[in-house]
Amino acid sequence: MSPTPAPVILIIPGSFSTAQMYYPLQAAMTALLPTQEIYVANLPSAIRNPPEQPATLQDDATFFRGLIEKLAGAEAEQAESNQAGSKAESKDGSRDIIVVAHSYGGVVATEALRGVSKQERLKAGKSGGAIRVVYLAAHVPKMGSSLEDTVGPPPEGMVGVGEDNFLRFLDVETIANATFADPDYPFELALAFVRSMGRHSNASFQGKVTYEGWRDVNVSWILCERDLIIPPSVQRGYVDRIAEQSGREVDLHVLDAGHAPNVTAVEALAEVLVKIVQKEVADQTR
User: Fold this and answer.
1) CA-to-CA distance for 170 and 273, rounded, in angstroms?
2) Residue 270: inside a domain, yes or no?
3) SUPFAM superfamilies recorded for this chain (predicted)?
4) 16 φψ region: left (φ > 0), alpha (ψ -120 to 50), beta (else)
5) Residue 223 in 3-state DSSP?
6) Is the pTM of this model over 0.85?
7) What is the DSSP string of 100-137?
8) Does 31 map to a domain?
9) In the predicted model, is pLDDT for residue 38 greater than 70?
10) Terminus-to-terminus CA distance in the chain, angstroms?
């Protein structure tokens, strides 16, 4: 019997963050699992600039839903290859996916999972799909609520909302201290990271959640104990609500880190994610 392949990992960044901020995490995970496939892509809401229109939550969700579909497998491409007389293997090449969603990315993942979970794809006669979402220091608003409904408007004096409906950092020192709160992480580096971050769409924070994807997949949560952006008590509230409403236990992991362990605690975060992947593979082989 051939070994069960590890699920593909797709990382959804947090607000104001580019994919580049997660490259060290990719490298750390690859060092632990050399054959692991790991992908990260930019949020439309974090990379558009005026005079472009700010991306909405639906823009972000549609983009990442498309990536999940692409990674899940391509039955159509396989069929075309077979029709052309290729010697390709007969299996459909479909793959399972673990979505890792950081901060605002948790809102995106929750919405993006519509129709692309493995169970929903099976109903549609397809194979592969999302089998787990890992919320990393994330927000998960209730159905019909936006991130702004959940946490309020951007903090005055720290984040400004322009007439173009893009958000900009105002008080970079306070934001650096709050985002990279790990005591051993140099403040100069934290400040440099914040200054390197661009705009983010205010419209994305106002988009209402219309689908609760965590109902369709297994859920893990990585809670950061030093998080000053999304306090641990808030994260535990999300965990309790998901567990209660889904009827399934949330696989909880606690990390001694601030809000951005992809920057400040890369190796520790990589180890947790590897454990989640390895447990998923072990469960599938039982």
Assistant:
1) 33
2) yes
3) alpha/beta-Hydrolases (SSF53474)
4) left
5) strand
6) yes
7) EEETTHHHHHHHHTTTTBHHHHHHTT---EEEEEEEES
8) yes
9) yes
10) 13
Give the amino acid at 159: V
Peptide bond into 51 cis (omega under 30): yes
Q: Give the strand pairing for 129-136 and 166-169.
A: unpaired
Distance between CA atoms of residues 82 and 102, nearest Å: 39
Bridge pairing between strands 218-224 and 129-136: parallel
Examine the pLDDT at 237 and tell me if it is beyond 90.
Answer: yes
For residue range 163-209, list pLDDT tens digits in order.
999 999 999 999 999 999 999 999 999 999 999 999 999 999 999 99
Domain that holds residue 70: 8-285
Residue 68: phi and psi, rounded to 5, are: -60, -45
**234 and 83 in contact (C-beta within 8 Å)?**
no
pLDDT tens per residue, range 43-54? 999 999 999 999
Residue 3 lies in a domain: no
pLDDT at 74: 52
Number of structural domains in the chain: 1
Tracing tokens 């306070």 back to the chain, one arrives at: 174
**Model pLDDT, residue 69:** 96
Tokens, residue 53:
């229109």
Residues 6+ apart with CB under 8 A from 24: 262, 263, 266
Report the 3 state secondary structure along 32-65. HCCCCCEEECCCHHHHCCCCCCCCCHHHHHHHHH
Whichever domain contains 93, its CATH number is 3.40.50.1820
| DSSP-H helix ranges across 118-248 | 118-123, 147-151, 172-179, 187-196, 202-206, 232-246
